[in-house]
Structures are given as C-alpha cells and as structure tokens.
Write a structure and sequence with these properties.
The complex is a heterodimer of chains A (209) and B (373).
Chain A (H helix, E strand, L loop, with lengths): L5 E6 L2 H12 L16 E4 L4 E6 L4 H6 L5 E5 H7 L4 E5 L5 E8 L10 E5 L2 H10 L4 E5 L6 H4 L5 E6 L3 H5 L2 E10 L1 E5 L3 H4 L1 H10 L4
Parallel strand pairs in A: 1-3, 1-4, 7-8, 7-9
Antiparallel strand pairs in A: 2-3, 4-11, 5-11, 6-9, 6-10
Chain B lengths: L15 H20 L3 E2 L5 E3 H5 L12 E3 L6 E4 L4 H11 L7 E10 L11 E10 L3 H18 L5 E7 H11 L3 H9 L3 H9 L5 H9 L4 E2 L1 H10 L3 H19 L7 E4 L12 E7 L5 E7 L3 H4 L6 E7 H7 L7 E7 L2 H9 L4 E3 L6 H7 E6 L1
Parallel strand pairs in B: 1-5, 7-9, 13-14, 13-15
Antiparallel strand pairs in B: 2-4, 3-4, 5-6, 6-12, 7-10, 8-9, 10-11, 11-12
Helix pairs in contact in B: 1-4, 1-12, 5-6, 5-10, 6-7, 9-10
The chains are: A alpha/beta (209), B alpha/beta (373).
Amino acid sequence: MNNDIITVALPKGRLADETIELFVSKGITQEGVVDEESRKLVFLDEKHGMRYMLVRNMDVPTYVEHGAADLGIVGLDIVKETAADVYEFMDLGFGGCRLCVAGVKDGNSRYRHDMVVATKYPRMTKDFFAKKGVFVETIKLYGSIELAPIVGLSDMIVDLVSTGQTLKKNGLEVIETMLESTARLIGNKSMTRLKHERVKEIIKRLGGI
Amino acid sequence: MMKKNMLASAGTNMAPLRSKKLNEIESSLRDVLSAYGCIEIFLPIYDYYDMLSSTTQGFSDENIIRFIDRNTGKSLVLRPDFTPQVCRYAANYMNNYPLPLRLGYRGRVFRNVNMDKGIKSEKTQVGCELFGLEEMTGDIELLLIAERGMKALNLSGHRYVIGDMKFNSYLLKLAGDIREEFLKALSAKNLDRMKKIVNESPLDDKVKTFLKSVPFAYGGKDVLEELKNSAPDEEIKTRIVYLQKFFDKLISLGIDEKALVFDASECKGYDYYTGLTFEILHGGVGSKIGTGGRYDNLAGKFGFNVPACGMAFYVEEIINVDKPAGVKVSFDYITDSQDKAEKLRAEGKSVLYVENKENRDKFLEFYEIGQIL
C-alpha cells in the first residue's frame, strides 16, 4: 500500500504555485512538476508518487469529497462555502485574503432587512446576516461582483478583497470583514484513511503532526 | 413524440447490464448472510416519520423524502435506513425466538439529494442485524460476514476502518468542558483547531498530549499500541486493550492485518452507536462499500431489551468497483420458431424468440447471442 499514488487537487493560479513551492521545500515533490503554461491539467511526479490536477478553486472540494482527489488545497472561504464533507487537516498559512461585505462609498453602510447582496458566496452570506438578525436576499454571481451595487443590481456585495484597489476604483468600500481566509489542506474521508501511511507522512512533513 | 417535461425521471433508473450485475451481487451476498444463519425478512418501503426520526442514524429533515398519509394525516418517509424497521420487526414478532437472532434484508433506501451533486436518491442495500450477541462475539461475526461478502464477490484491496464509540465517549469525558469544540475538531481531523482548543484548556498535560494525538491516531495495530502507552487513565487504557484483543482475534480468524485500520478519531454517529463501528473502503471508489456497528440501546426503544449490531453492503458502490462485464445483455439462443424456443427453455436455456427473421440483424446488434437457430 505504500506504493499508493496520492492525487492532489490544486486551484489554478497562485495557490498552486505556492503549494508546489512548499511541497518541494518539504521534500514531498520535485521541482518543476506542475507547469501551468503547458495547458495540461494532470501532472505526475512518479518518483515521489504524487499526482496533481489543476481545477477551478470552487471545484477543489468537489473533487476531494468524491475521492477523485485524495487531498486538496483550497482557501478556507471555499471550504466553508461549499460545506463539503471532507477532512480539514491544516492551515498552510499562505494564500491569505479577506472575505468582506462592501457597499457604495459614502452610501448607506447600515445593514437592513430586505437588502439585496450579490456574491459568489451565497451560503456564507446568508449565514452571516442571519446571525446578525438581518434577513437579506442573495444574488449569485460568478464574477465582476463589484459591478452589482453600481448598476443597482444589489445594495451590497460580499467578495474577496486583497488590496482593496478594485473596490476603490469602482467607488466601493469595505464595510466589514466576514472571514480571514488562508489556504487549507483538505482530504477525502475514505481515501486518506485507506492510504493512511502516505497521507500521514505528507502531513508530518508539512509540520502538522 | 414525448412532451419535453416527461423526459426526466424523479428517481433512479438502472441500465440492463447494471441491473443484472446488481442482481448477481445481491444474490451472492444473500447467500453469505444465509451461511451465517440470517433469516430474510421483507420490510415496508415507507414508514412513519415519528418512528424513523428517533431511531435512524444521522436522520435529518433535509435528507429524507417525506409525504403525508391521507388517512391519518401522519408524516411518512421513504425509508432512509433498514435498521429501525428490523429492530421493530424483531421486537414485535420474533421476541420469543431463541437468541441470538439473526435477521437479513435487502432492498432500497432513499434520500433527498441536492441537485448536481452526483449522488443517487435510491440505493440498494443487503444487510443483517444480529440480536442478542455481546460485543466481542457479535462484532467479530459482523466483520467475518463482511469479509466473506468480499470473498464471495472476489473483491480484494478493501480495508476495514474501525472506530469505537465507547473509546470516543471516554475521550469526550476526558475533554470535559471543551467537549463540543473537541468533537468538532475531531470530526474534521482539524489539527490546528485541535491544538488551539486543547492548549487553551485547563486540562492536565498528559490529557492534553493524548487528546492532541487523537486526530492522527489512525492506521494499523501499532496505533493502538501507541495509544495504550500514552493513555492518561485506566478506563481508556482498558478499552484500548480490549480493542487490541479484538484486532488479534480478527487476524487469527484469517482477516489480513493490513486490511484492518483503526481510526481513534472516528466519531460519526457517536450518539447512536454504543460500541464498534466500521466502514468497508475500497481504493477503486472514493466512497464506502459497506458499514456496520453496534447499537445496544436501539432494540430497547421498541421494547426488545437485547444487545444488537448490524451491517449493510452498499450494492451500487460495489458495482462501481466490480463493473459489469461486456457491453450487451446476453442470451443463449435466438430463433424464429416458437416450438424450438420452448424446447430449449425447458432445458434451462435463455431464448429470444423473434418471429420476423428480417428483424434478426437488429437484435444481434443490441444483444449478445450464443447461437442462432
């Protein structure tokens, strides 16, 4: 069973690069195994028995939950939004970002009932406002969320903010931070126990145990 | 042409080859249950909400398919699990039988599923409940049934992941005031959260170290040895020694040591199960192909105060590992003579009778035929 190959789902982009960098430094994989420029989606590191697949960040928990990937790297925001039934092994410390409520600058920044909130994160948004005792309607969007309050599609938005530049340029401002998110190592509940020798070894190298 | 809104089916269809495979698997597993002295019973496909909600593991309104009985106005549920029904049956109609009493069942269970999750709403299970067997004897028998089931299906490469809710309850006792937070971190195997909540608690150091080690205390027999050596009190230590004995017994009865995995952090259904639980996992699929466990308090809810444990095989998941062979359904013969067909059928052959010879090629395209007559 120690010859098991471990499949890891990575979100395309910076998080994938940082993960591979970390894995290389901990001796889990070899350098240059994932080449995002190549347009390939699956990469094999035969020597270390690791396979990587590049998927959309929102899809990482799905691949892991269904066991198509044993492990996955994804932001806490996505773990919470998808509420996937997976193990949430550890915080990898990088990929930091904030999930914020934002609205039109100098507009009405008070939360009120019947507000419409546009977001990629309807589940967390609903929970967040419900806990505050405010009922809101959510509109799910897939991109350019900042546009919604400007054109009157919504009163506020909930979206990821890194520097705040995009918000500023579109005349919006942060009202409140909902969640500080960093990259998490998640695992399929069956596969990580089936391949327990290898998975524990990886987590040990990452400093989890 | 069919109207557009009549194309989609609300439930689950199964194509011919998979249907055939399902029957074969079901039949092999039923033979296994029978070999262990199980008597098969048939149970209602729907049942009362009130009964199921208080006796079904993991019962939640979101996951059930519910409707109303127009006569009584009571809520009914398509059965999400067989165990409560089996317990009720045993309590009502078989309470005078000598113990142990072993009951077998097969059929479909139902659940409400979210769209686009890739999960079916109907699943076939073959399973059994053993009444009146104490934990060492009964739990061993469950694992033996599981293993014989795997053998009957020629499956290999599976593992039994074993958890123990008694061990778990001792853990929660050790956790004391941080019990709830601890359980949450444990079920997610969340190391960071576990470290944080344990370190910030007023527990003594030996207990802290032990609790922090639990999320990753999963693996072979060596895990039990490590847990024993760091056990902070006698109660939990005694239980670990029991588990070691349990593992040794299974190995001596022929179950491959490598197939046995203990997971100290298993806590699913901790308020339902009273002792051992297990999942049969297979590398070919990300999901379990069977589960089982002990629920000594369940039969008592129906007035049948005996210890009980049970297990079920998940047939659809098994089909995903043990895929149907071929691409067409096969028959021994095709013929245009009804006389010949009847003679062959009397000899036990399967025969497609197609009166119109010109149609034959079309049949040969769709079916695998042994011989043309």
